[in-house]
C-alpha cells in the first residue's frame, strides 16, 4: 500500500509542480491602466490561467488573491517568504514568494492550469490596500455532434442564458471565423440546439460558444478527427499565391493537423485534360515546421506557360491550378502536320536550346517514343506509319534547362470535330428539307408555284372518265397552283358561277367571251382532246370531201362545219345523236376549234395548247394541222406548268426558284397521277406499255354531219 501511494505521488509530482503558482517581476505591457489587474485565459478550453499584476507598494502590504473554481484557494504574494501566521494556516492561505535580487516596480502573480467548476466558471478576487476587484470567467456548457455526409454540426447548449455559437478554424494564434458564416444565437429556454453547415470538415474546424455579454469568455471544442476529413475538400479549399520564383500553398489548418503533407507536380493542359509530365515534382523551399499553414514550392526553374499547370496531391486526391500568365514565357512553339512527319517551329526571345521527341498521348501521360531531336528553329519529327494511338510532340527547353514539357497534338481532335460538325450540318439540312417538303405537301404549292393568268379548259367528250379526268386537272390547277380556271361544266352550275353562265348566254357566246377574256389577260386555253374529238373533226373533213390532215384550210373548214352543226343541235334541230357527247360540250368544243383554226390561219395562235390523258387518247389522234403545243398527262405535267407560267413568272429567271419549280412540278404530277389512277385504265398509266391500236370508225354519223343553221360571227 505504501509503495502504491509513493508511486502515485511520484507520478503526480510533475503536475503539482507545473500547476504551482509563481510570482516574478513583470513589465508594464501586461497591465491596463485603470482596470482590474486580473486576467483570465483558457488554454485549453477547460483550463484557466490566472494572471495578477501588483505594484511594489502593494506587494509590501501582502495583497490577497482568492481563486474560486473546482477548488477554492487563497494566496498571498510576499516579498520575502516567511512562516505563515497561525490565522493564515487555519484559513489555508498559501504564501507565494516574489523573490528577485532586483527591485522592480511591477510584479506578476501567475497561476496556471486552474480547473474550472462543473458549470465552467472560474472567479478570481484581488484585495490590496488601494484596489479591490473580482473577475469571473464563466463559459457555457454545450455538446457537439457531427454528421459527416451532410457536413453539418449540431450544437446543444445547456440550460441557462442566451449564447452565441460559431464555427472557426483554429490557427497557431487564434480561431479565425469562416467566411460568410456569421454566428448563431441560441436561447436554451426555447430551442437549445442549432445546426451549422460547414463548407468542409478539416481537422482544425472548431465550435466556439460564448455568452452574449461584451468581451465574454469563449469556450471552444474541436471535434473533427482525421478520419472525417476529406483530402479532396482540403485541396479544393486551399489557396495559392504566385511569386516570382515560388508558389505558396495555404491551408485553413496548420500543416501538422492535416492527414498528410501535400505534394506538387506539373501537368500540361490541352483542350479538356491536363496530361501529367514525367519528373516534374516541385521541391519545397524554406518549408514550415508544421505549426503554420503554408507550403512554399520552388518554381524558379519551371517553364511558366499559361498551359503549364500545377497538380497538388494529398492521399490520392488531386487538385489542379494554372497560376502562370502569358507574359511569363519567353518562347513559343507550333506544330504542323505532314504525310508521315510533324514539323516543329520554335521562336524564342532569348538565346536557348530546345529539344523535341515524338510521344503517344494516353490518359496517364504522353509516352515518349523515337529519338530526341535537337531543335534550332525548324525540325521534322518522323511518325511511324503504324503508330498506335494519337501521335504528338513534346517540346522542352534543354539549355538552360527548365522543368516541364509542352505537348502539342496537331489538329487531330479539331479534324474529328470538323467531321462531326459537317455531318451535323448535313443532317440538319436534310431535316429542314424534310420539314419543308412535309409542310409543302400539307399546305399545297400555292405561294411557291403560282399561275397568275386565267386558264380556259375546253372538254371534247361527255364520257364519264374524260369528264372526271378534266375535273381532276382543273382541281389541281385551281387548288394547288392558284389558277383561275374556267370550265363549261362548272359554268352550268350555280355553285361555280362567277358571272353569266352557259345557260344565260348560250354555249357559243359564252365560249367567245371566255376566249377573249383569257386572251386579253395573256392566259392559256387548254383543249382536252379525246377519241370523240378525233372522230368529229375527221367526219367534218370527210363530209367536205377533204382530208383532215391535208392542211390548214381543210382543218378550218372542218372546224367551221363542226361549229355550225353543234350550234344547230343546241337550238333543238337535230337529225342524229352523237355517242358520248351533249349539245353544250359539243358546241363549246366546236366553237373553240373554230377560234383555233382562225388563229392558225392568221399564223397567230399564242396561249393555246392541246392536252390528252394517258389511257383516254393518243398523240396520233390530234390532227397535224393543229400546230400548237401538245401535252400528255400526267407525264408531261411539268412542261404544262411551265407553259402556264410562261416567261413572265419570277421563278423562271432565277436558278434556285427554277429548281424548286421543277421539284414541285414533279410532285404535282405525281399527285395528279394518283388522282387519275382511279379514273383512267391502269394500263394507260404505265408509260412502258405501248399505246393500243386506234379504234374502228363508228358507223353512226358524228356531230359534224349536221348541216348548220346559223353562222358564227
TrEMBL record:
Residues 1-19 form the signal peptide. Residues 681-713 are annotated as: Disordered. PANTHER family: INTERLEUKIN-17 RECEPTOR, INTERLEUKIN-17 RECEPTOR E-LIKE. One of its GO terms (biological process) is inflammatory response. The chain crosses the membrane at residues 416-437. GO terms for cellular component: plasma membrane. It is a single-pass membrane protein; Single-pass type I membrane protein. It comes from Betta splendens. It is found in: Cell membrane; Membrane. Keywords: Cell membrane, Glycoprotein, Inflammatory response, Membrane, Receptor, Signal, Transmembrane, Transmembrane helix. GO terms for molecular function: interleukin-17 receptor activity. The lineage of its organism: Eukaryota, Metazoa, Chordata, Craniata, Vertebrata. This is Interleukin-17 receptor E isoform X2. Residues 454-644 form the SEFIR domain. The gene is LOC114858275. Its main location: membrane. Residues 193-398 form the Interleukin-17 receptor C/E N-terminal domain.
Amino acid at each position: 500500500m505504501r509503495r502504491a501511494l509513493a508511486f502515485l505521488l511520484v507520478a503526480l509530482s510533475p503536475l503539482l509542480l507545473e500547476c504551482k503558482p509563481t510570482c516574478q517581476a513583470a513589465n508594464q505591457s501586461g497591465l491596463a491602466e485603470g482596470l482590474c489587474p486580473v486576467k483570465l485565459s483558457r488554454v485549453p478550453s477547460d483550463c484557466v490561467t490566472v494572471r495578477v499584476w501588483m505594484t511594489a507598494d502593494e506587494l509590501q502590504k501582502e495583497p490577497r488573491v482568492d481563486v474560486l473554481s473546482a477548488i477554492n484557494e487563497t494566496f498571498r504574494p510576499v516579498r520575502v517568504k516567511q512562516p505563515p501566521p497561525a490565522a493564515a494556516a487555519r484559513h489555508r492561505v498559501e504564501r507565494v514568494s516574489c523573490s528577485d535580487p532586483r527591485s522592480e516596480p511591477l510584479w506578476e502573480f501567475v497561476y496556471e492550469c486552474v480547473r474550472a467548476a462543473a458549470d465552467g466558471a472560474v472567479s478570481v478576487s484581488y484585495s490590496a490596500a488601494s484596489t479591490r476587484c473580482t473577475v469571473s470567467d464563466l463559459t457555457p456548457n454545450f455538446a457537439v455532434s457531427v454528421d459527416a455526409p451532410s457536413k453539418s454540426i449540431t450544437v446543444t447548449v445547456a440550460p441557462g442564458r442566451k449564447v452565441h455559437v460559431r464555427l472557426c478554424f483554429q490557427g497557431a494564434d487564434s480561431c479565425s471565423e469562416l467566411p460568410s458564416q456569421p454566428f448563431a444565437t441560441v436561447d436554451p429556454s426555447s430551442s437549445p440546439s442549432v445546426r451549422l453547415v460547414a463548407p468542409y470538415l478539416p481537422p482544425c474546424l472548431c465550435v466556439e460558444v460564448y455568452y452574449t455579454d461584451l468581451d465574454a469568455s469563449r469556450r471552444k471544442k474541436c471535434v473533427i478527427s482525421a478520419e472525417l476529413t476529406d483530402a479532396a475538400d482540403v485541396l479544393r479549399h486551399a489557396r495559392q499565391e504566385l511569386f516570382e520564383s515560388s508558389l505558396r500553398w495555404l491551408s485553413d489548418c496548420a500543416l501538422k493537423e492535416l492527414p498528410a503533407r501535400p505534394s506538387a507536380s506539373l501537368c500540361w493542359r490541352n483542350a479538356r485534360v491536363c496530361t501529367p509530365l514525367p519528373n516534374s515534382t516541385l521541391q519545397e523551399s524554406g518549408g514550415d515546421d508544421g505549426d503554420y499553414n503554408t507550403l512554399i514550392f520552388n518554381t524558379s526553374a519551371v517553364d511558366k506557360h499559361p498551359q503549364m499547370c500545377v497538380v497538388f496531391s494529398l492521399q490520392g486526391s488531386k487538385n489542379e491550378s494554372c497560376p502562370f500568365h502569358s507574359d511569363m514565357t519567353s518562347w513559343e512553339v507550333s506544330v504542323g502536320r505532314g504525310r508521315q512527319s510533324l514539323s516543329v517551329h520554335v521562336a524564342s526571345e532569348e538565346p536557348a536550346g530546345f529539344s523535341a521527341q515524338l510521344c503517344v498521348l494516353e490518359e496517364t501521360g504522353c509516352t515518349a517514343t523515337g529519338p530526341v531531336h535537337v531543335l534550332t528553329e525548324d525540325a521534322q519529327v518522323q511518325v511511324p506509319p503504324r503508330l498506335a494511338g494519337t501521335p504528338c510532340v513534346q517540346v522542352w527547353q534543354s539549355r538552360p534547362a527548365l522543368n516541364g514539357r509542352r505537348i502539342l497534338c496537331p489538329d487531330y481532335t479539331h479534324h474529328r470535330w470538323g467531321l462531326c460538325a459537317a455531318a451535323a450540318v448535313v443532317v440538319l439540312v436534310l431535316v429542314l428539307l424534310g420539314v419543308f417538303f412535309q409542310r409543302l405537301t400539307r399546305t399545297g404549292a400555292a405561294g411557291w408555284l403560282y399561275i397568275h393568268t386565267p386558264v380556259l379548259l375546253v372538254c371534247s367528250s361527255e364520257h364519264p372518265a374524260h369528264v372526271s379526268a378534266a375535273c381532276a386537272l382543273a382541281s389541281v390547277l385551281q387548288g394547288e397552283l392558284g389558277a383561275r380556271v374556267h370550265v363549261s361544266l362548272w359554268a352550268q352550275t350555280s355553285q361555280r358561277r362567277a358571272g353569266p353562265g352557259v345557260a344565260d348566254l348560250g354555249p357559243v357566246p359564252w365560249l367567245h367571251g371566255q376566249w377573249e377574256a383569257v386572251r386579253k389577260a395573256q392566259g392559256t386555253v387548254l383543249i382536252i382532246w379525246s377519241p370523240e374529238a378525233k372522230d368529229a373533226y375527221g367526219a367534218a373533213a370527210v363530209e367536205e370531201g377533204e382530208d383532215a390532215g391535208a392542211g390548214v384550210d381543210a382543218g378550218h373548214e372542218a372546224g367551221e362545219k363542226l361549229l355550225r352543226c353543234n350550234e344547230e343541235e343546241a337550238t333543238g334541230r337535230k337529225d342524229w345523236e352523237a355517242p358520248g357527247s351533249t349539245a353544250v360540250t359539243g358546241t363549246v368544243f366546236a366553237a373553240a376549234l373554230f377560234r383555233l383554226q382562225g388563229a392558225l390561219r392568221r399564223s397567230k395562235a399564242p396561249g393555246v395548247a392541246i392536252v390528252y390523258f394517258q389511257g383516254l387518247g393518243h398523240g396520233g389522234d390530234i390532227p397535224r394541222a393543229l400546230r400548237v403545243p401538245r401535252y400528255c398527262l400526267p407525264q408531261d405535267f411539268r412542261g404544262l406548268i411551265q407553259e402556264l407560267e410562261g416567261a413572265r413568272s419570277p421563278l423562271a429567271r432565277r436558278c434556285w426558284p427554277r429548281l424548286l419549280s421543277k421539284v414541285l412540278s414533279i410532285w404535282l404530277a405525281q399527285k395528279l397521277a394518283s388522282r387519275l389512277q382511279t379514273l383512267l385504265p391502269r394500263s394507260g398509266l404505265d408509260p412502258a406499255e405501248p399505246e393500243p391500236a386506234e379504234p374502228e370508225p363508228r358507223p353512226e354519223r358524228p356531230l359534224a354531219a349536221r348541216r348548220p343553221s346559223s353562222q358564227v360571227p
